[in-house]
Amino acid sequence: MSMPPNPLLEDQLADPLWERFLHSPTSGLARASRPDCLGDEPTPLQWVAEDWDRLEAERRDILDLDELEAQFDRDTYLRDGYAVLRGIVPPSVIETWTKALQYGQRRNDALLQADWSQIDWLTLGRRPPKCQLSAEAIAGALGGSQKAPQKTDEAGVLTLRRHSVFTEYFPAGHVPFLMDVLTHPQAHGVASKGTDRQTRWCSLYAYKKADDRTGLVQPPHAVPPLWALKAQRGELPPVLTELLRPSFDRASTGGRTQPYQN
Q1: Most exposed: 4, 36, 154, 229, by fewest CB within 10 Å?
Q2: What is the DSSP string of 6-63?
Q3: 252 with 216: CB under 8 angstroms?
Q4: Which of 158, 169, 170, 173 is nearest to 121 (CA)?
Q5: Helices (H) and strands (E) in the chain — how many of each?
Q6: What would the pLDDT profile of 4-51 be if each residue is shown by its tens digit?
Q7: Which CA distances in Å does 86 have to 67, 89, 91, 109, 171?
Q8: Which H or E run contains 74?
Q9: Is 165 or 220 the better-scoring residue by pLDDT?
Q10: Which of 59, 95, 63 minimizes the C-alpha distance to 186?
């Protein structure tokens, strides 16, 4: 059985290994989440304050805002409900982005082909699996996305997914440029609905619109527990902590623990 999606929102956890996870130093948990088969290059999961400061200092635009402004027609957008914008991402950014995605795929494939008996399963909150992925299943998943069999956690795929040991699940935690995009001021802020309202926080991983009546949000479905833990402990930049808040802040979710829960 794999760890629940939002363990920090749970009042009680069924497995002592999950409790141990939540009370462990994040540095040790990060080592377990980045096994040797993925190489020794530090990932955003292992960054310290100096690394986050460097990201901010070296940040470059990912959108050509002048080009965006020149093309955007508000009346057409309001009429059609969408806008087609051409050339607003500079070619150099497209090249960097493409290489980042290719790097993430290589990491994903490296894990698929690794010896999973070397993974520190206990630190990840489960006993070592007794079965393995078949050679056929591995071959079918290489070069793709979300193709490793995961209807159950028999081989540990769900555990590796939940903790983002697989790069494809929360790739920003593996690839520096994608973390740059996730936390970029040109990408994460969504304009408020009115002048009297605050900026909304947006992310494919964590954004849940607050209920207009209650102010509560739904718990996220794809924030790895270690990232939630680092955010709760104040180990991340404020913008990222805010993006991940629904994964650890029980007040914001009104006691709900599962995504799409009433």
Answers
A1: 36
A2: -GGG-SS-S-HHHHHHHTS-HHHHHHHHS-GGG-S---GGG--HHHHHHHHHT---SS
A3: yes
A4: 158
A5: 12, 2
A6: 999 999 999 999 999 999 999 999 999 999 999 999 999 999 999 999
A7: 8, 8, 12, 33, 26
A8: helix 74-80
A9: 165
A10: 63
CA distances from 151 to 37, 126, 140, 146 (A): 24, 17, 16, 11
Alpha helix ranges (H) inside 89-186:
91-112, 135-141, 157-162, 176-182
> Using an 8 Å Cβ cutoff, are 217 and 234 in contact?
no
Name which residue leads in pLDDT, 101 or 239.
Answer: 101
Burial of 63 (0-12, 13-18, 19+ CB in 10 A): middle
∠ Cα 21 19 205 (to 5°): 60
Task: Return the pLDDT at 72.
Answer: 92
Residue pair 93/170 in contact by the 8 Å Cβ criterion: no
Please state the domain extents for the chain: 7-186
Report d(CA 162, CA 165) in Å as an integer: 8
pTM, whole model, 2 decimals? 0.90
- Give the C-alpha separation, 133 to 235, whole Å: 35
Closest CA to 227 of 251, 247, 254: 247
3-class DSSP state of 201 = strand
